[in-house]
Design brief:
Largest sheet: 5 strands, antiparallel
Strand content: 35-45%
Mean pLDDT: 82
Number of helices: 1
Low-confidence stretches: 1-32
Strand order of the largest sheet: 12-7-18-17-16
Structural class: mainly beta
Distance between the termini: 55 Å
Order of helices and strands: EEEEHEEEEEEEEEEEEEE
Radius of gyration: 21 Å
Number of strands: 18
Helix content: under 10%
Length: 237
């Protein structure tokens, strides 16, 4: 028997720290980079055999270093950024028919304008529906509504006092009556954006926007904030 020697390379901004805790705090002047753990079992193996490797990566959240989020759903950049918006889901439906849903955008106090209008069957979460350069201290807001039986529903926006629009980041818990991950109505498109505890799981410079378009009573089981879901990613211009 002989000990196995493990070689780990740090590349492309990825750092793996042996024996490090799950979450590490870097110095304020350091770039936010992923950190994690890597272990092998057994640590000593026979020649020709292989150990089982276990690894995990923690991605630090950078988003609050570049934007301010004012509840329930207003985003204000702290510096000039590029923002990409994707539609993750639009799940308003009657029986098996999805209602056409509209996602709207307001920048720096402008009126709301359409950036997407379609149904869930035509959602492509890989498609960027809007790219915008956003400057420091200029508010970003979103709106949503659906069209059914020749009329529009009420429109809810980032400033609606009902709280039907919520801007959340990684680690936040969606404010629903029951945890989303425990609800039988959890939409499949939202599941990848929740961890096992039902907390939001997105990238370090992402903000997810959840809309409830069919209910206003937060105690109603139908109030689940997944009628329209947007993902906003911020990056340097």
């Amino acid at each position: 028997m002989r000990p196995i020697k493990l070689t780990v390379l740090a590349a492309a901004g990825l750092a793996i720290c042996f024996g490090a805790p799950e979450r590490a705090n870097a110095q304020a002047s350091d770039p936010a980079i992923p950190v994690g753990t890597l272990s092998a079992y057994p640590s000593v193996v026979q020649a020709g055999t292989f150990p089982t490797l276990s690894w995990g990566i923690t991605y630090p959240s950078e988003i609050l270093t570049v934007v301010t989020i004012t509840p329930p759903g207003t985003i204000t950049p702290k510096k000039t950024l590029k923002m990409d918006v994707r539609v993750i889901g639009a799940s308003v439906k009657s029986a098996t028919t999805y209602a056409p849903t509209e996602a709207l955008f307001s920048y720096n106090g402008s009126s709301y304008s359409r950036m997407w209008y379609n149904t869930q069957t035509n959602v492509n979460p890989n498609t960027i529906v809007k790219t915008q350069t956003v400057d420091a201290n200029r508010n970003i807001r979103f709106g949503g509504r659906y069209y059914w039986q020749n009329s529009w529903s009420s429109m809810y926006t980032s400033t609606s006092t009902s709280g039907n629009v919520r801007a959340l980041i990684s680690g936040d818990t969606p404010p629903t009556t029951y945890p989303l991950y425990q609800q039988p109505t959890l939409e499949s498109f939202l599941a990848p954006y929740l961890d096992e505890q039902g907390k939001i799981k997105v990238g370090p410079k992402d903000v997810i926007i959840l809309f409830e378009l069919t209910h206003t009573d937060t105690d109603d089981l139908g109030y689940d904030l997944q009628d329209l879901v947007l993902l906003c990613t911020f990056r340097d211009p």
